[in-house]
Amino acid sequence: MAVVTFISHDGEKHEAPLEDDQSLMQVAVDNMVPGVDGDCGGEAACGTCHVFVDDQWVDTVGRSGPVEEEMLAMNPEREPTSRLSCQMRVSESWDGLVVRLPEFQM
Ligand code: FES
C-alpha cells in the first residue's frame, strides 16, 4: 500500500494510504488528518488545503498551476514548494510522499 506522510507544524506525523486519482486534500480529509480543511470541496477557491511539498518530491508531484497560484499568492505562509493539495491528483507511485502543513489554514 502506498502511503503519504503529513507532518503538522509541531512535528506530529500522520500517515494515510494513497489511491490513484484522489486529490491529496481528499486523502487527508478521508483519513481525518488534522490541519487540512478543504472548505471549498476542491475548487481551488478557499486555500484551506495548503501544504508544503518536501523538496525531494517537487519534481515528481509538479508545481502549482496558474489558478492555484492566484490563491497561494494571497497566503502569507506561502513557501517555494507550496501547493493546494486539492489540485494534486495522487498516484500510488508517490509512495513515501512527505508534505508539511502550515500552522494555520486560511
Ligand atoms: S479545498 Fe479549497 S482550495 Fe483546496
Topology:
Layout: E1 3-7, E2 13-17, H1 24-30, E3 50-53, H2 58-61, H3 66-72, E4 82-84, E5 98-100
Parallel strand pairs: 1-5
Antiparallel strand pairs: 1-2, 3-4, 3-5
The structure holds FE2/S2 (inorganic) cluster.
The site of FE2/S2 (inorganic) cluster has 15 residues, from loops.
Q: Report strand %.
A: 15-25%
CATH architecture: Roll
Radius of gyration based on Cα positions: 12 Å
Please, how many domains? 1
Average pLDDT figure: 96
Q: Any low-confidence stretches, pLDDT <50, length ≥5?
A: none
Bound molecules: FE2/S2 (inorganic) cluster
SSE class: alpha+beta
CATH superfamily: Beta-grasp domain
The CATH C-level class name: Alpha Beta
Strand order of the largest sheet: 2-1-5-3-4
Distance between the termini: 32 Å
Number of helical regions: 3
Global morphology:
globular
Give the H and E element order: EEHEHHEE
CATH topology: Ubiquitin-like (UB roll)
Q: Tell me the total number of β-strands.
A: 5
Largest β-sheet summary: 5 strands, mixed
Helix content: 10-25%
Describe it for me?
With 106 residues, the chain is an alpha+beta fold. The protein is 17% helix and 19% strand. It is built from three helices and five strands. It has helices spanning 24-30, 58-61, 66-72, and strands at residues 3-7, 13-17, 50-53, 82-84, 98-100. It is globular. The chain binds FE2/S2 (inorganic) cluster. FE2/S2 (inorganic) cluster is lined by residues 25, 38-40, 42-49, 71, 84, 86.
